[in-house]
Design goal:
Strand order of the largest sheet: 19-20-21-24-25-26-27-28
Number of strands: 28
Shape: globular
Strand content: 15-25%
């Protein structure tokens, strides 16, 4: 076996594989000398350490003797220091870790070739049975086989530098400095009794404005020490061939080709703000060694290794990206109350949550809740929220969900049961599906409408049920027009596929089909635009008569009004096309017309797609300006969704993946927002609300899975206050049912515990 790269991942893989089978001939090539190292301290989680302990107690015992352990995280901002405990960190010097692994490899008989460049990967592949490429973020092996691994390397906008200080922080420390050039941040943690790792980070434009782009790195390091003198106790910072750089996220479609396999940073990277790349590399080594033991052939072992590790790494990378982007956009949060700012920072990756922090440090979390305004014993999600004349009893919204179950646009018994059940389930606000303003504005033949009196009467039946049987729950209507995405099959018959017959003509901002097989819409004339505007106002008037509490204008997901907003779908050359200001013109005209007939005391929201997830489309910056325009016209809240505008989109899915767009709009425009998108647990809702990233959370699939989702969330948190009133017939079910015991998973790789 050949291992390219003598970092912790490559060395640990060598030691494990040799221990599993002493007859293996394993050679490690490392271009640097054995006492060379870059960086300073390495942080490892309890989970990773547990895997090391079970797989090789000799390595674990040697590491444990040098661990520095601590529990606290300090956040220092505007002379306020807030501490959260119970986190449990372990770190040691990178140089010491390499010494331990060198000794272990020597003892086991691994051949270590220092100050030696590895032979070309193709030669190694022909000469050895297995080649492990652990040659880091700049992997030459990955580049040599790029057409097979298909790597994507994304550079990010912050500059940072790894440094050290000759004293030990007593906690993991985050400190914010607001300088004349912009915001800078320090990340620091101890790795020895007398030493700490210090990372200084800032936006590229701040870095340039501060003059750190000058070639004299030593001078910039001295300046950093002065800027963060309080955190450093007046001590200097030292370098180890340190240089300012930008973080790069590495993703590979495949991790192996033939008998060559990637490990650690060669395969993937995750931003340093959520942990150590060494942690991921060590876990890769554990999994690879286990798969080679378990599988009957090399090919099957490498496939199993990739199948096991890729989902874990992808999840870590999503969390890392959320953390990275939070620090890139740190300036948005600076004016938050001090404790909320600290909570926001701690939960930035979406992995650490409100409930998790409460378990770790109830005192800190309780202080954040009190500062937020939570009454005693009230989770954040059950605090009320006011929009114009409407007070919602909690922060949960049943998101609009197209049911495609109407006849001639008339909502029937299905809709009564569907919406009524979710209203009884305790949400603060229940939204209808997109209700179409004309027959030609339907998505499918099964869509509901508000363009006839019969439809309005049927909706009135539903709103009256909600108001009578679920007092305290508001019901809102979402008005929209399908545009170029209309005249399609019911979702379960073929989403976005054209009807085989019975089609109706489509209209849009521009004559562009949604998919190659879609109907080509007609470009709307000025006269037709006036007609559609009247359709919206007529529908809004009927909605008011039907008794809805809130109206949302659908300007997202590629439907008609959204089609005007995106440059990918609006190619007009008149006053309704071109610049963003002109693309906004028709949606704003419709908004103003609807607001003019909608009751003054009732709120009106707008749903937007904050990005098209496609090159050349709406960007997050555009979304801020779109939200700003609607806010200037009197919108009460922005419902922030993304995508579904063009068929070729490439969304970056993940837990709460759309909430950063809502967060940005909320903090830049100071307008209430509704966050949507893979918010699946009440813990997510509490975390997002308490961190100040959103005002309301809209959930769809969880309410399909459980119509009583909000009531069950209250029961699971032991909450019985006014934010979640159980209907009298349901009160017997307000206690959480008992559950059976579940056992923790066994260690991934357990070897003979007799030291060898």
């Amino acid at each position: 076996m050949a291992i390219i790269g003598g970092g912790p991942g490559g060395l640990y893989a060598a030691a494990l594989l040799k221990r599993l089978d002493p007859t293996r001939e394993i050679t490690v090539w490392e271009r640097n000398a054995p006492d060379d190292t870059f960086g300073f301290g390495v942080v490892l989680s309890d989970e990773t350490l547990g895997g090391i302990e079970h797989a090789d107690p000799v390595v674990y015992e040697a590491m444990q003797r040098d661990f520095v352990r601590w529990d606290d995280i300090d956040i220092v901002h505007r002379n306020n220091r807030h501490t959260s405990g119970g986190h449990g960190f372990a770190a040691l010097g990178r140089k010491r870790l390499l010494e331990i692994l060198h000794n272990r490899c020597h003892t086991l008989g691994v051949e270590l070739r220092f100050t030696t460049e590895a032979p070309y990967p193709a030669w190694l592949s022909e000469t050895y049975d297995l080649v492990i490429a652990a040659d880091g973020v700049n992997s030459s092996t990955r580049e040599a086989y790029a057409r097979f691994f298909r790597p994507r390397v994304t550079a990010h906008r912050n500059r940072y530098i790894w440094l050290a200080a000759d004293f030990a922080f007593d906690a993991f420390r985050f400190e914010i400095a607001e300088t004349e050039h912009g915001v800078m941040q320090l990340h620091g943690y101890p790795y020895a009794p007398d030493a700490s790792t210090v990372i200084i980070e800032m936006r590229e434009e701040v870095w340039q404005a501060a003059g750190f782009d000058e070639p004299d790195t030593h001078e910039s390091i001295d300046r950093c020490a002065k800027i963060f003198a309080d955190a450093l106790r007046g001590r200097p910072l030292r370098s180890n061939k340190s240089a300012w750089t930008t973080f790069r996220t590495v993703v590979n479609e495949r991790w192996s080709y033939g008998n060559v396999v990637l490990l650690g940073d060669a395969a993937h990277t995750a931003h340093f703000s959520i942990g150590s790349g060494t942690k991921l590399a060590v876990e890769d080594a554990l999994a690879l060694a286990a798969c080679l033991e378990e599988q009957p052939s090399l090919a099957e072992a490498l496939t199993a290794y990739e199948e096991e590790r890729k989902p874990v790494v992808a999840s870590t990378q999503r969390a890392a990206r959320a953390s990275l982007e939070w620090f890139e956009n740190l300036g948005f949060h600076l004016d938050q109350p001090p404790r909320q700012f600290a909570f926001n920072l701690l939960t930035r990756s979406r992995r650490v949550t409100h409930d998790n922090l409460r378990l770790r440090d109830a005192r800190f979390t309780g202080a954040v809740e009190r500062e937020f305004g939570c009454p005693p014993g009230t989770p954040p999600m059950f605090t009320p929220f006011r929009l114009r004349g409407l007070t919602l009893r909690n922060r949960v919204v049943v998101s609009p969900m197209d049911m495609y179950s109407a006849t001639d646009g008339v909502p029937g018994d299905f809709h009564l049961v569907h919406l009524g059940a979710r209203a009884l389930g305790g949400a603060g606000l229940v939204m209808t599906e997109m209700v179409c303003v004309s027959a030609e504005g339907r998505i499918t033949p099964g869509c509901t409408g508000l363009y006839t009196g019969r439809q309005a009467e049927s909706w009135k039946r539903i709103t009256e049920f909600v108001h009578a049987q679920a007092p305290g729950t508001a019901i809102g209507v979402q008005l929209g027009h399908s545009g170029r995405k209309g005249s399609t099959k019911l979702m379960w018959e073929g989403i976005d596929e054209p009807l085989p017959d019975g089609n109706w003509p489509l209209v849009a901002a521009s004559p562009l089909p949604y998919r190659p097989d879609s109907q080509i819409p007609r470009q709307l004339s000025r006269a037709q635009l006036s007609g559609i505007r009247e359709q919206f106002t007529s529908a809004a008037w009927r909605a008011a008569r039907a008794g809805f509490d809130l109206l949302e204008l659908h300007c997202a997901h590629g439907y008609l009004l959204s089609g005007f907003l995106s440059p990918l779908t609006n190619h007009r050359t008149d006053v309704y096309g071109g610049s963003l200001e002109r693309r906004l013109r028709f949606p704003l005209e419709v908004f103003d017309a609807v607001r003019g007939v909608w009751p003054e005391e009732k709120p009106m929201t707008v749903r937007i797609s904050a990005t098209d997830w496609a090159e050349g489309g709406t960007t997050a910056e555009d979304a801020v300006e779109i939200a700003r325009a609607f806010a200037a016209h009197g919108v009460d809240a922005i419902d922030v969704s993304t995508g579904q505008v063009v068929a070729e989109e490439r969304p970056e899915y993940g837990r709460s993946y759309q909430t950063p767009f809502a967060d940005r709009i909320r903090h830049e425009i100071r307008v209430p927002v509704i966050a949507v998108g893979a918010i699946s647990s009440w813990d997510d809702v509490n975390s997002l609300i308490l961190a100040g990233r959103t005002d309301l959370c809209a959930l769809a699939r969880p309410h399909l899975y459980d119509p009583n989702w909000t009531l069950h969330a209250a029961a699971e948190q032991g909450y019985e206050g006014p934010g979640a009133g159980w209907p009298a017939p349901y009160r017997a079910g307000s206690r959480r049912p008992q559950t059976g015991r579940t056992d923790a998973p066994k260690p991934r790789l357990t070897l003979d515990q007799t030291p060898t």
